[in-house]
Amino acid sequence: MTAREVVLLTGAGISADSGVATFRDADGLWEGHPVEQVATPQGWDQDPELVWRFYQERRSGLAQVEPNAAHRALVELEQRLIAADVGFTLITQNVDDLHERAGTRRLLHMHGELAVLRCESCGVRARDLEHLDPETFVPCGSCGHVRLRPDVIWFGELPYFLPEIEGAMGRCTEFLAIGTSGVVYPAAGLLELARECGARTWVNSLELPDNADRRDFFRPGRAAEVVPTLVTELIEALGL
Ligand code: APR
Questions:
Q1: DSSP letters for 175-213
Q2: Distance 12 CA to ligand 1 centre (A)
Q3: pTM (two decimals)
Q4: 2: pLDDT confidence band, cut at 50, 70 and 90?
Q5: Residue numbers of the domain that contains 9
Q6: Is 16 in the same domain as 120?
Q7: What pLDDT sits at residue 6?
Q8: Cβ(16) – ligand 1 distance below 6 Å
Q9: From ligand 1's centre to the CA of 137, what distance in Å?
Q10: Which is it for the CA torsion 127, 132, 137, 138, positive or negative?
Q11: Relative to the CA of 17, which ligand 1 atom is closest?
Q12: Residue 27 belongs to a domain with what CATH number?
């Protein structure tokens, strides 16, 4: 039998159904700043206090949200596929911890994680959701540097797990993009890559993403409502 692998890419839309805040007001600003200003290495260099407050707000917000039916359906999918000896990789652009809290195991956080801090000096990482004071930096426990930065990928930085993602895309026979607008690269290029590799492609989003086309099975609607049905459809399509 041909080896099969299901690869998923998730984005902000799946977390939206858990109430994860975007922290942008109607003008797309946070406390009067474009979000890009607080999500770049330059922003951190110029005003680390501001950037730290932004991320401490987001880190604190993790305790206020729970995984939803879409996250849980993807855990069921993973378990069914693994039991049937079908490959599974979930790539997420989300920096929240909802997939792992739901129980997903094979997960690649390509844009990093809010729950992790990284030393900008020695590079050591620490999982930390205890220090949430927006006014106080966390010093590095390893080299003593005055402050750790959030271990998230900022605009202009290279995403994590690119070799692992490339490997999964090379094996991919079915690809699902869930709750992602298809505008931020390189993640946005994965849907086209999947088609080029001959994979069947499914897309869930509120509106047709920029990178979708008629070859995709488009399932519009809220992830928490659509993804459980989509998982059933996929399991049937795989003949499991
Ligand atoms: N269910 C399904 N899809 C939804 C829902 C929902 N409840 N709510 C919104 N969406 C869809 C929107 O229609 C949109 O297509 O999710 C997509 C969200 O798009 P973006 O906000 O651009 O999020 P994402 O694609 O994850 O952004 C990629 O950009 O901001 C950076 O680094 C950040 O990881 C992020 C990256």
A1: EEEES--S-STTGGGHHHHHHHTT-EEEEEESS--TT--
A2: 4
A3: 0.96
A4: low
A5: 5-20+67-111+159-237
A6: no
A7: 98
A8: yes
A9: 30
A10: negative
A11: 7
A12: 3.30.1600.10
